[in-house]
Amino acid sequence: MSRATGGRPSEMPMRVQDSNRMSNVYTTPQSKQPSFGKLNIPKPQSVTSERRTSFFGARGASMPRNSTMSGFGGTEKIKDARPLHDKSYVQQCIRQLHEFLTEQGYPGTLSAKTLQSPSTKEFVKMFEFIYRQLDPTFEMPNSKVEEEVPAILKALRYPFVLSKCSMYSVGAPHTWPQALGALMWLIDNVKQELLFSDFCEDGDNIEEGAEYNKLFLDYTVETYSKFMQGDDTFEDEDEAFLTKLKKLYNVDEALLASMEDKHRILSDEVDRLEKENQTDRLMTKRMEKVKLQADLKKLQSYRSSLESFKANLENKASELNDEMETSVSHLESLKHERDELQRLLQNQKFTPADVERINREKNELQQTIASLSKSLEDAEQHKWNEEIALAKVKEKVELKVAEYHKLARKLKLIPLSAENACGHDFEIRPFDCGPNSNVQHKAQIQMLLRKLISDVEEDNSRLTNMNLSLEESCEQLNSNIFEKSNDLKQLREQIRKLDERLDFDMQELAREEQGWAEEIESAENHRELLQKKVNYGYDEAVQQLKTAQQQYHLVLQETNEERRTVANNLASVFTTAANHLSITEVNVLQHCTLLRVCSKAVEEDAAALQKMRETVESLKSKANSL
User: Fold this and answer.
1) Nearest partner of 206 among 163, 239, 251, 176, judged by Cα
2) Which domains are seen in the chain, by residue range?
3) Burial label, 334 (beta-carbon count in 10 A; 0-12, 13-18, 19+)
């Protein structure tokens, strides 16, 4: 039987995995025990839990076998044969990881940059998502995920070591390939689980019986006996057990062969397509999708602009239609008025005197219009000249006002909330009100400015007095500074004396350090002498250790011989137990048959006894009647 991760969980102690064993596709699932051929996922209890267990007990490092493979609990590391440091292989694994996460509906964001160097948080999310494909009830703890992930991989019997230190910097160039290899191994297990779940859908109704138990126990006894003799491979036993299982469960060899041929053809087709198109088609499609979305946004904006332009044109068209209707109605009224005037003209009768009078009045009116037009032109010219003069005056006034405002801002008089405004408005607004209001506003501002000037003069006199007092204080400070300078000279003299004393103390300290150095040298010589004595004692201790190790190996060899004897005895006990179990089952069936025969005989005897009792009763009644 294969010891790959996807195989049946064996009660025997687990050892080195062998990926070259036969495939588990041919195995048949069972209903009561864990499925034969399905991935068995034990939930990890803790980081310190044992990797493999056995009902014989854990085999420690003190029980080695004469074998090239590791033992029960051996800590020998298996070399990873995958080219994880090959960039092309790493990129291929990243593409496969991206495709798997996309197909399974990974909820997070996926990008090529993220998968090239993910953070620890992103790696834990991907690991949790993939592991949930195996165990939907799994929940990643919030704390100590750096310890939990290696523990889960160890519980899943991952053949290689993923250290806790690498989990703190998953995206680093020297740790990401190992973490990626662990994810790819987990994805392969998920794919095997999906394949076996599809293959084993119709096999849940098969129940294990005595025949299967006997086959499995015989296989276990044979393989374990060879295992204890030093063998590590059991190809003959695997083949024989597989043949018996196929015969027991009626496996269709033709169907399996056709499925293998189909899988091989599809694999060749996938390899050919990957060679033809090395680019990432998914990324290409995504780029096309982004471009199409950008074009769609442009088209939508263009459509909205066209709709707004159409609405403007419709509004203009409606306005033009209204104007045209108004013009048509006005034209109709003018035509009607023209017809009325034409009718009046035709019906009116003038004399030559009326015509001359009308012409004369017309000429007078034209002369009046010409004189009035000339007067209007003169008045407009005068108005224009006055407006130009007024504009020049306004410009001068505005310049003066601007200079005033500039000076007022420097003096912090405007705006109203300025520091020196005192709540008064000093801003001049010419041409906002009438001339009277301007004069009144000017008088008010002048009065406020005079008051402000008087306040400033008072402050100036007060500040002058303060300046005089400050000058007197300054003279006093200068005299104090002169006195302090004299004190400073005295302090410098004291510092010079202290420096001389410090030099003398330093010389004394140097002489003391020289004496200490001589003492240290003598102590160093004493230390070397002690070290030589310690080395001599260490050599004697090493010799004693070698002697103890030789004795230990002798005792260990004797212990191993005794344990092998015990294991052989246990194997014989297994064989006896299996035979006894089969014999017991046969005896139980025979006993059931005898029990049914006995019960039938008892029923017949009871019926005969009842009949005899009835006969006796009838005889008694007849005897009594006689």
Assistant:
1) 251
2) 87-283 (1.10.418.30)
3) exposed
